[in-house]
Specification:
alpha/beta, 8 strands
Length: 246
Amino acid sequence: MKVGLFVPCYINQFYPKVAIDTLELLEKLGLEVGYPLNQTCCGQPMANSGYEHLTGSTNELFTQNFAGYDYIVSPSGSCTLHIKDHLHSDRYPAESKNIRSRIYELTEFLTDIIKVDNIKASFPHRVGLHQSCHGQRGLKLAQMTELTAPAFSKPEQLLKMVEGIELVPLTRADECCGFGGTFCVAEEAVSVKMGKDRVADHIKNNAEYITAADMSCLMHMEGILKRQKSPVKVVHIAEILNAAMV
């Protein structure tokens, strides 16, 4: 199985360790992982701002980069959902359609495709799990609490395999953090208030770390935590799943 690693631009620029941990984790699980060196932004910021008609070049490049892989995996639910829902190519229509059906966010790939049932990792801390909106409502990584349906969470399923971790219960398990990509720029005050509320829930329940499958949400909450001089830290789920045994 050949897996193409898609690293979103903000992770590449600001949180490269998340990409490294994702790569190491996939390789530990016995997968052959490739990383196309000329990959760039997937075009989500433009599309979310109403300029999807300007994403043609990014679509073509993404298709060329990843057409040869059995699966494409990314440590970002929002970027994964964008490709899954919006990737199209005038030059390679069949290839882009195929990619849309073979791209997975990291935790759904681990649970749904290779069906991981054992993670050799250790993270002896109290951790609050943030269920990001793109992952939960777009990719169905977890059940929505407003539905009368059996609860599930693919990120939580994996975290429970980690030695020493203590997952803290949250008062509002699937509340939005307010990031929303360009929303945090266009609606700054609303975004910040939502982020403060989300952070407060984790702090109230004595979390040492906040984790999620979307580093963008964590970046938003990290900024709030730092301004509040809080000792609570953020950590991407790939960093926990790849944490060395102690």
